[in-house]
Write a structure and sequence with these properties.
It is an enzyme of class 1 (oxidoreductase). With 174 residues, this protein is mainly beta. The protein has helices spanning 16-24, 71-75, 90-97, and strands at residues 29-30, 32-38, 41-47, 50-55, 58-65, 80-84, 109-111, 117-119, 124-136, 139-151, 158-161, 164-167.
Length: 174
């Protein structure tokens, strides 16, 4: 069956970068806080380019914009916290995405002995060490080896889809 799309724009109607942003926004992603304790303060940023890579060794990948001022600081730490944000963390995600100001906005977090910062009430905590980095155009791709995992099964993750925050709806009963 073929369905006509009535609100689609021709490929040449938008600048290429805007068209790509819209295209990429069709794929729902989680939101992950990357954070560490650096010079007596928590430093963090939000990313939605996060994926599992390998079970052996245990690897995940993230990508960060080369224009980020926070990424070089986090890339240099020996241990990085990755927290999969929960559905109620939308304000925190917005704060972590801001260019200035208090990124943690009063949200609770804990520091590991190695300096990783983990967000309270997140769906998942990963404590990681940098494995390798790769060129990704206007982003840098980083592989991290997982040192520790804490999973909170009962916490619903925050989802980013079509440039909006969403939550996962429970399936309807048959």
């Amino acid at each position: 069956m073929t369905t006509a799309v009535t609100d689609a724009l021709p490929n040449d109607a938008l600048p290429r970068d805007l068209a790509l942003r819209r295209a990429f926004s069709v794929y729902p992603t989680g939101v992950v806080a990357l954070a560490a304790h650096v010079e007596d303060r928590a430093v963090g940023m939000a990313v939605n380019s996060f994926t599992s890579i390998s079970l052996e060794p245990a690897l995940v990948a993230i990508s960060a914009a080369r224009t980020s001022k926070t990424w070089p600081v986090l890339r240099a730490v020996p241990e990085l916290g990755m927290s999969v944000l929960a559905a109620h963390h939308e304000p925190l995600s917005r704060s972590l995405s801001a260019r200035e100001g208090d990124r943690f906005g009063g949200h609770e977090w804990r520091r590991t002995d190695g300096g990783a910062v983990l967000i309270a009430d997140a769906a998942l905590w990963l404590t990681c060490r940098l494995h390798s980095t790769f060129d990704g155009g206007d982003h840098e791709i980083a592989l991290y080896e997982i040192a520790d995992v804490t999973l909170f099964d009962d916490i619903e993750p925050l989802v980013f889809h079509q440039s909006r925050y969403r939550s996962i709806a429970a399936p309807e009963s048959a």
